[in-house]
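Supplementary Data S3. Sequence and C-alpha cells for construct A.
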Amino acid sequence: MKGSDKICAVVAAPDAGSFWHQLERALELSQTVELRLDLLKNDSEIRKFLKRLAGSTPRANLIATCRRRPGGGGYAGSIAKQLLHLSAAVRAGCAWYDLEIETRRECPREMLAVLAGEGRQLISGHFFKRAPANLKSAAAELTARRPDAIKVAAHCDSLQDGLRLLRLAHGRRNVIVVPMGEAGLPARILALREGSALAYAAVDTATAPGQLSFAEMKNLYRADRLTRKTRVYGVIGDPIGHSLSPVMQNAGFQARAIDAAFLPFLVRDLKDFMGAIAPLGISGFAVTLPHKQAILHHLEGCDPLAAAIGAVNTVVVRGGGMLYGYNTDYIGVLRALEDCMALRGSRVLVLGAGGAARAVAFALATAGATVSICARRPARAKQLARAVGGTMIERQRLRREFFDAIVNATPVGMHPLAGKSPLEADELNCRLIFDTIYRPRSTKLLQLAARRGIETVSGLEMFVAQGTAQWEIWTGERAPADVMRKAALKALEREEKAKAAR
C-alpha cells in the first residue's frame, strides 16, 4: 500500500460529530487513517459523517471500514446497506475500502460491482478466538478474487502464533498482518519491520484486542522505524501489562540515540519464549514473576551472585544464542534502603521466599543485616533463611516481634491483588516499611504503615535502580538514570490521575 505513514490511525466514535473531531486529530498524527464507520451508532450517523467528508475531503490515504457483525464488526445492517455506505465513502474521497471475507463470500458480483473501479479493495479476515491452524490457507482464500491488498488479523495465544502470522508478510507486497491479544503484542509492534504493509493504532478507543494507542506505537515503541538492525529487548512475565519497564528502558534508548526497542512479552510458557528469541532477534531481556527462578534452567551461564541468589532478572543473549544471567534486583534493594537506614546490624523481616525475596534477602545479609523470612510456604522460607544465615519466622509471631524494617517481596498489592496488604496493621511493628511493588506507588501496605507513622519507601526506587543497571549491562554504556526515572514517574502519575478521574 502506498504512503509514507505506515501506522494507520484508527477513528472510532458513536456519533458523526465526535467521529469528525477524531478524524481531525488523526490527520495530525498520520496521513493513513481507517474510518470505522461500523462503530457509528446507526445509518443516519454514517450518512451524516460521509456527507461532511464529501464536502471537505482531507488529503490523506483514507480506508473505509463498515464491518458487519458476522465479521466481528459493529454494523447490524444488511450487506446491501453496507456496500452502499462503502460506495458513498469511496465517492467522498476514501482511496480504499475494507471488505471482510464474510461479506465477500455472500456478496453477489453485481452488488460488488457498484464499488469496483472506484476504490481499491482490501479483503480482510478476522479471527478473534484463535489463529487458524493453517494461516496460508486462510490467506489464500483472501487473495482468491485478486483484491488490491489483504489483511489477516488473528488472536494469538502465544508468541509462536504471532510468529506464524508475521511469516505471512515476509517477502510479500500489500499484505497486512495484525496479531491480536496481549500475547501477540510484541508481534504487533514488530509487524512493520517484518513486512506488514500497515500497522493499526487507536486515536482514542481501541477497536481490537491488544490494539495500542497511536502515541504508544509511534513514540514509545517507534514501530515504523524499527529495522533488522534494531536491537530488540524486552521483559517477560505473567502478568506483564502492569510493567513500566518499556516506558523506562525505551526512554533510555531514545535519550542516548540507541537503535533499540524494549517490548513487553506475556510469557506463560518459557519454551514458547525461547523459541522466539532467534526469529525476533532478541538481544536481551528482563525477567519478572513468575520466571525468575525457572529461567535458570535455560541459561548457558550465570553471574556467581545470581547463582547464589538462585534467581535471575536480567539475561543477555550472546553469540550463538547463548543466554547469560544476572540479578540486578540486588542492586535495587541496596540503593533503595541505604539512604534511609543503616543496614549493618539492623534486624529486617523479608516477606516472601520467591525470586524477588531471595534477591532482597541476599542483599540485606551481605550488607550486614540480620534477616528473618516469613512466607506462606514454611519449607521455602526455611531454605532461604539458611542460605542467608538468617531465621524463619512464623506469621503468628509477628505481632510480638519488632524489626528495624519490613520488606514486602511478594506480589500482594500489585495487579491482580491491588488493594490488598500482605500484613495487617497490628503486624507492622517496625521503623520502616519497604514495598518492592511500584505500581501502584502507594500500596495498601504503605498506606497502613503511613497511618501508624512508620517511614515508607516505594518500590519505584528499587525499580529504577535495578532497571538502569539492566540497561547498562545490555548496552555497555552509562544509563541516563534521571531521564529513565522521570519517564517512569510521569507514567505512574498519569495513570494515577486517570484512575482518580474515573
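Construct B, processed identically:
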Amino acid sequence: MELPIELEKYRGTTGNFVTYFGDIYPGSIFEFNEIPDRFFIIPPIHWREVQELQKGIITPDSLKDYAEEIYDPKVITRIIEGKSVGTDTVLHNPEMKGTQKWKQMFVFGAGASANCVPKTELTAFENFDYCPPLSDKLFDSKFASISGAYDGVNLFQSSLRRSKRTVEEFLEEEWQIIKRTHNTPLLARHTNIVYYLQELFFTVSDQVIRNFSRVNLYASFADVLMKKLSFDAMAKSAIVSFNYDTLLDHYLSEIFGVKFSQIDNYVDSNVNPFMLFKPHGSHNWGYHFSKAFYDVHGNNAPYYLYNNKTPLDEIYYTHIGEPLHANGWALEGKYSMNKNKIEVITDVIRHYHPAMLVPYNDKDDFVMPYHHTQRMEWFMSEMEDLFLIGWKGNEKKFNEALKMKAHNLNRIIIVNPKPENVIANLSRHIGDLSKYQVICLPDLEALLDSDYM
C-alpha cells in the first residue's frame, strides 16, 4: 500500500490517529513486506515485541495484540500531535466507606426481560406488542411504527432478512467493512440504529411497566433481594444487566427507594445495598450534546446526523465536545469516548447522543463510566456466587474480566432453559467449569421459588 504523503512522517514519529469511526490509535506507522495490502499503527510500548516478531515470520495474527490494522488510509481523518490526548486526566472514583461484603452477583441477559412474567402469563406477554425483543426480533415488523422514522434502519432490513445471518453477525460484518473502508453511509446507518434502539426500548420499558407490573418477576426479584439484604447491613449485591431496557432498574428503584437520577446512584454502595451495572448502556443514558449543537438542531439530531452522513469522530469530538479521556488508552488499548461523560437523561432526550452498544457479534465493549467498570471488576474479585439469568454467556469482555478477577467464585447458578449453551460459552472463555459447583434452573420463577438466593 502506498502511504499518502501526509502520513509519511509517522513512520518514525508518534501521533494520535483519529478515525472516522471514532477510535483514536496512538503510535507510529509500521509496514511489513509480508503484508503489503495494509499498514499498522503500533504504540511505542509494543515496539520491542514487534521487533522480536520480525526475527521470524510476520503475520496479521501475530500482530493482533500489538497493532491496529489500517486497510484504507481515508479512515484516518486527522492526526493529533503530542504524547497525550484528552482533557479529563482524573479517573473519577468515589470513595467506598466501611466494611462491605460482596458475595453475590446477578447477571441478567435479554432472555430475562423477554420472560419476566410467570409461566401462566407468558402467552399473553409474548403476544403483547411491546414484549422485550430478543436480538432476532429487534427489527420485527410490529415495531414499524417506531422504525419508520429512521431511514437508515429501514434501508438495511431487506439485506438483513436476505442474509440468513443473525442480527449480531450481520451488523458485525458491516462493522468490519466500516473499519476497513471509508464508508460514511454505512456508518451513518449504524448511528441511526442506535437512535432507533433507544426509542424502541424506551417504549418497551414504559409499556411493560404500564401493563404487566402486577405479575412482573423483576418486581419479585427486587422484593426478595431487598428482604434478604435487610438482615445484613454490610452485605452488598451486584446486579449486571446487559439489557437496554429499564424494567429491572424501575423495580429496584421502587422497592429499594433508590433514585437513578445521577449516574453515580447506580454504584453507590455507601448508600445502597446493591450496585447496578449496565455494560452495554441503557436507553436512558447519553452523552450531552454541546449547547451549540442542540440549539441549532434541537429535536432533529438523529435525522440531521443521518442525512448528513456525519461520522462518529465528528459526533464525538465536535458535537459532544472535549469528550476524550487521557486514560482511555490504558483502559481500552486506544483512546475513545470519555465514558465518564455518560449521564442519566433528565431533560430533552434529543439533547443527548445515546450511550448504547450496537449489538455486534464480536465487537464487545463496555458502555458505562470507567469507575463502574472498575467497581464491577472489584466485586468480581470478591464474589462467591454468580447467578446467570437469561444470559447466553457470550459477552467476551465480561468473560475476560471474570477469568482475570473471579478467584473466589464457588458457585455458578445458571437460570436458563438451555443451560448447555451457557456452559459451552463460559467454558470457551473462562475454562473448565468443573472447579465450580454448577446449578441449573429453568427460569427466573424457579430461582425465586428456590433457596439459592
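Residues 84-453 form one domain. The first helix runs from residue 47 to 53.
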